[in-house]
Amino acid sequence: MTEFNRRKFLEGSAGVAAAATIGTGAAVFAPAAQAQAIAFKPEKGAKLRVLRWSRFVQGDIDQYMKNVAAFTAKTGIEVRVDNEGWEDVRPKAAVAANTGAGPDIILSTNDDANLYPEKLLDVSDLAEYLGKKYGGWYPAVQQYLRPDGKKWIGLGLGAAGSMMVYRQSQIKAAGFDSFPKDTAGFLAMCKALHAKNTPVGFALGNATGDGLWCNWLMWSHGGKLVDQNNKVVIDSPETLKALEYGKELYATFIPGTLSWLDPNNNKAFLDGQISVTNNGISIYYAAKNSTDPKVKELVADINHASFPIGPVGQPTESHLFFNQMVMKYTKYPQAAKEFLRFMMEWDQFDPWLSAAGGYIAAPLAGYEKSAVWTVDPKNTPYRDSVKNLRPAGFAGKLGYASAGAGADFIVVNMVAEAISGSKTPKEAMERAQKRAERYYKV
């Protein structure tokens, strides 16, 4: 964590009020002195259109729409919500930003906001209020949405934590009493699982969320896309070690992962084809809510763990970050900010977190107190996903270049090419280096 982000996080945390506990065990937040009550006066005749990514857990959209309905009942403002897949939101958001027409509010992923910051409404007043009231925004949120250290170009919504999802019975049958905590043990386990015909599988297609494991593979061995000066350094001895490790790992994969997108590993796991993958809590959620007896039987066997620590000796977590952007072209900026304020307040946001079953980890420290993280111990590993998140543009500054490189799947493609053998690791690194340099122009 940089000194700037550490200082800002502490400043935001200083405004947290003591939480009182009520009979249900929910925490109630009272605004601190620095977080005076704030409300935005919606424009007369305001109507809002929201574009957001589609659900992976039904409870997410059900509760989100309940909150939308509550906002409309309170304010009289009609809100239309359109749902699209992750891969579809990004191009539609870019078109809206460039044409100056479309949704008023867009919920998108990773650092998409940095592709067109000048097209986004300044929401600093709202961001500062929420930060002071709810314990401070985590450092990664500020890196994504306050890139200049001053103006907020969006609000954090949270992240879909990417954790290891595994069958406890199958790793035990392979000779492991617990999930390995380091990369050496992880590779040994994957080899043992493959030998037992219970292979693992990780997405190697252009998967917006599940392809993020490729960042972990690179970072865990000390590789990175760019250094702190935004110089492209992906072609390095550290990245080479990561790719060589990845080749051994790939040999334990189920066939077909080169074409996997975000839904594929969920289906493979629930079908019993694989024993380990990386995913949000949606696999567990689906099993718990399934009407299929065979899938329901998996619930007791599913567990979650953090990604193993590699030679760098520290966690290197990569999660799918969610942002909320208000487009500058909106005719109703005050209504848009009041909508987001309403949706982010405890009375709406905490029920939404709970309904999603832990699928979304919150961007504000105060929401660590949500009961969703302790009601089921298998939810707990996902709680700190935003807190521990390393932005995809690590170790450089986020901006046009990092957003473009991420959207172009440079790291994912490099890993896929190298570990599958379609290119040598050196060839894959060199191609990734050249592709990244087109974004990070000196």
Structure, described:
The chain is 40% helix and 12% strand. The protein is α+β, with helices and mostly antiparallel strands and 442 residues long. The chain has a domain at 3-17 and 27-36 and 43-160 and 318-382: Periplasmic binding protein-like II (D-Maltodextrin-Binding Protein, domain 2, 3-Layer(aba) Sandwich), CATH 3.40.190. Helix 1 (3-13) packs across helix 5 (139-145), helix 2 packs antiparallel against helix 14 and helix 16 packs antiparallel against helix 17. The two termini are 25 Å apart. Residues 1-33 have low confidence and may be disordered.
Topology:
Blueprint lengths: L2 H11 L6 E2 L5 E2 L18 E7 L4 H18 L2 E7 L1 H14 L5 E5 L14 H10 L5 H7 L9 E6 L2 E5 H6 L9 H13 L17 H8 L16 H14 L11 H9 L5 E4 L2 H7 L4 H4 L5 E4 L14 E7 L6 H12 L1 H10 L4 E2 L38 H8 L2 H11 L4 H15 L3
Helix pairs in contact: 1-5, 2-14, 8-9, 9-16, 16-17
Quick description:
This protein has about 450 residues and is α+β, with helices and mostly antiparallel strands. It has 17 helices and 11 strands.
